[in-house]
Amino acid sequence: MPRVAPLALAFAMSLSAAALAQGGSSAKPADAAGDPTKGGPMADAKPSPQRSSLDELFARLASAKDEAEANGIANLIERRWSRSGSDTADLLMSRATEAIHKKEYPVAVELLDRVLALEPQWAEAWNRRATAFYLLEDPASAMADVRQVIEREPRHFGAWAGLGHMYMASNDRSRALEAYRKALALHPHLGKLKEVVDRLAPEIDGRDL
Question: What is d(CA 206, CA 143) in angstroms, rounded to the nearest whole number?
């Protein structure tokens, strides 16, 4: 059976260390959360140069030659994800991030509830709350929030990795492998995930034959 890190640690690893360090910001972001095809605050907006730039970053990430290059590009993506464009929401996100660092997880959840009331299409706010829920040992709520992340930003490699870790914890290795592969398709050098997939794949793929 393939081994993974303890789930709480692995889930935290799958999240953006850069994004957690960034916290909130009043800077105007790229639109990483709003999807013009799904309604929400960006529904009537045309694709912006910032959005195009984000797409270009993902293209560069997928073709990165090594871990250092990939991590540099991923950090740029994560910085964009960490901003909503709302000064109030960004401030609350910053405070929630500080609460997570201080292990004040119920406080973080309360703050993130307020963030999501203001910016329900902000994928990274859902991702941050998923982290807090998981650290509160509430995997059901964490998984529900991760699914909200993926619905709003299907390219969120951290959310896919986190989902894989949660499936592994529930011994659903087939779904875990699928989620891990989706994460790696977006970010080919995501931590030790490739090693986990390489160990897990022969078992699952052989079973499906």
Answer: 27
pLDDT in tens, 97-136: 999 999 999 999 999 999 999 999 999 999 999 999 999 9
Instruction: Catalogue the E-assigned strands of 62-181.
Output: none
Taking the whole predicted model, whether its pTM rises above 0.70 is answered as yes
Instruction: Please list, in sequence order, all residues whose beta carbon lies within 8 angstroms of the beta carbon of residue 40, skipping any fewer than 6 positions away.
Output: 34, 120, 121
Distance CA 176, CA 3 (A): 12
Which option is the CATH number for 7-24+48-208: 1.25.40.10, 3.40.50.510, 1.10.760.10, 1.10.150.320?
Answer: 1.25.40.10
Tokens 């022969």 belong to which residue? 202
All structural domains of the chain with their residue ranges: 7-24+48-208
